[in-house]
Amino acid sequence: MESSDAVNLKRNEKVSNVYPVLMAGGIGSRLWPVSRELSPKQLIKFTGEDSLLQSTIKRLAPALDTENLRIVCGDKHFDETARQMEEIGVTPAGKIICEPCGRNTAPAILLAVLNILKVEKDAVLCVFPADHVIREIEVFHRKLESAILLADKGYIVTFGIMPSYPETGYGYIEGGKDISYGALTLKRFVEKPDIKTAKEYIKAGNFFWNSGMFAFKASVIMNEFKVFEPELFKRMSDLVAVKETVTKADYEKLPNISIDYAIMEKTDRGAVLPSDFGWSDIGSWKSLYDFFPKDDEGNVIKGDVIAKKTRNCLIIGSERLIAVNCLENMVVVDTSDSVFISDMENTQDVKTIVTELKEKKRKEY
Question: In whole angstroms, what is the distance from residue 121 CA to residue 186 CA?
Fold first, then answer.
């Protein structure tokens, strides 16, 4: 059971020193050809009238104050990010932190921390990828309250998704001893397992999908960066201290490292908060298929599509008719200049196609 402290946290009270931080970098190459370098997946309306970014912002309220929102994104996505924020009534001024190039999640999070500390002596940061989806918003808010309370006590909290099946496409987190508010000590991170190992994790009951969502105090994570990534901490601190905007030449010299490798696998302050709120990372065409409701034949169909004798497929069209016949467990995605076709289980391989397009300087990249 959840602690009554967490449940009774004043959800409608705006807490001035809690900052939601959205990670909105990357190009979502596993969702090509819809997601591209200049139009990445977080800015695309996959799941309804809102983009993934807009949906992520909307589900923060009322648990978090969007006036404290910060979004870390690439320079080239600033204008569209600002436009989408205004579209849902969130003023972008002062809320967008731009990276001149991508250097993974550790530099992005540290950049956000240092920017927030310019206006706050200390703060609790709640870090979320901007391209995930969550179905059970009220459950998410309750878990968020617990995470904030744990972060305030000095824990670096990661949300561990309770696995519903032996997924081999996610990293896992092993939980240890009980702490409070339903959380466990963070025993270890493990890489994406094979199916046999994933089944063992499910059976063990203390392994969780790594969601990439965190809560921590700025002062706590700053200290961990000083201890475990002193070079990154010094370089970033120097850049932020002397410059209003960071140049690409300076930024690309920073280590390219994830927050998991930089901090979470080394810290003794880690806590995993088991969570079950209908989460998906929408990281591939298969995960998008899994998220959407299916028709009677198990298909997810969007656009002008005629499907005959077709089962368990994802078919997405844009400007023209798509006609398919006798397909099973396939993905067909059509855009104005490209078509992607794959069996369902291997859709993540599209990333290698994107790499080839980039190397050949194809405009479809």
Answer: 28
